[in-house]
Amino acid sequence: MKHTLLLSWTMILFTSTMMSAQSTTDIQALKKLKSSDWPAAYQGQDTALLDLILADNFRLIDANGNVFGKQDEMKYISDIKPTYNSFEFVVDRCEVVASNTAIVSGLGVLLGNDAEGNYRTTYHSSDVLVKHDDLWKSVASHVSGLQKHYLNRP
Fold first, then answer.
1. Cα 90 from Cα 108, distance rounded (Å)
2. Which of 10, 96, 119, 146 is the most exposed place for a label (fewest CB within 10 A)?
3. Looking at the domain that runs over 2-150, which CATH code has it been given?
4. Is 108 exposed, middle or buried (0-12, 13-18, 19+ CB in 10 A)?
């Protein structure tokens, strides 16, 4: 009985340690994907990178309630050159809720200039990602609170 109990505790400890290590690795990968890879794909019009990030069944709901799929986003970044100079995404929530499902949310900040002057655009984004073959892919994204402020105005 003592050996069975000891073996059970050892297995529980081993499993929880492995899950914690996997979760830490997943959290790091998810934060990199959302704060580095995703902005790089949009700013660099990199459809190959975006293809790796978005699942085939990806859906985006924008700040106006419009719904777009993966192919819409691929066409958008291919056809529309960004007017912003920098794109930063600050992750404020990154949580693996099951071994293959995660929620990542945060604040996007774009700095640029157009005919009206220098601007700063911010938005909030919440994403659901699913792990396929050790790669995290976004299946859903919701953007809200889109605000554009010109920096040369009071």
1. 6
2. 10
3. 3.10.450.50
4. buried
Reported confidence tier of residue 1, pLDDT bands at 50, 70, 90: low
| Domain parsing of the chain, residue ranges | 2-150
Average pLDDT of the residues in 50-75:
98
Residue owning tokens 């978005």: 54
Q: DSSP string of 18-81? A: HHHHHHHHHHHHHHHIIIIIHHHHHHTT-HHHHHHHEEEEEEEE-TTS-EEEHHHHHHHHHH--
Q: 73, 139, 70, 67: which is closest to 101 by C-alpha?
A: 139
